[in-house]
Amino acid sequence: MARVGAELRRQDFVKATVKVIAEHGVANATTRRIAAAAGCPLASLHYVFRTKDELLYAVYESLFSLPQQSLDQVPAGTTASETAAGMLRQVVNWFSTNPDLARAQSELFIWAMRNRPEMASKIYSVSTEATEHALERAVGEQLDETALKAISRLLIQLFDGLLVAWSAHGDLERLHAETETACRALALLVEQH
């Protein structure tokens, strides 16, 4: 029987954890359930991840990079407001086509706020910084640093709010309508800067 390397096993556990969180929530994502979902012995999980927190942070890092990659694919609009709105549409498109990943990411962040505030703070800082960089790359020098920070934070807040609303109502058509309303609000903020 061939041995599986630690990095491959790590990826298996991260994928299994996403699946378990999406199905059962973070509170019910036991290491035993995660190991079973990965088809691996529990001892393997504890060999690859020393603590459950280490595993959860690895999951968040893997989930965080996915919507951020979609931000990098937004073509620059003719104005900063069009570009920012395009970024929001792109992220909403990502989570509507990857609902389990998006729900797991949201669930994990809410869990971290309650149980590991330092992890939640780190996660928020990293996501804010990454969003600022993506926006800056897309709009160039059209916005100053203060505007970049404000707009990036609003992008994250709109994304989170739209995800929570869509998770509750599940109506894709309504999600798109609400996204367009959010894009208009975002465009107004950008135009003020």
From TrEMBL:
Residues 30-49 bind DNA. It holds the Pfam family TetR_N. PROSITE patterns: HTH_TETR_2. Residues 7-67 form the HTH tetR-type domain. SUPFAM superfamilies: Homeodomain-like. Keywords: DNA-binding. The keyword Nucleotidyltransferase does not apply. The keyword DNA-binding applies. This is TetR/AcrR family transcriptional regulator. It comes from Metapseudomonas resinovorans (Pseudomonas resinovorans). The lineage of its organism: Bacteria, Pseudomonadati, Pseudomonadota, Gammaproteobacteria, Pseudomonadales.
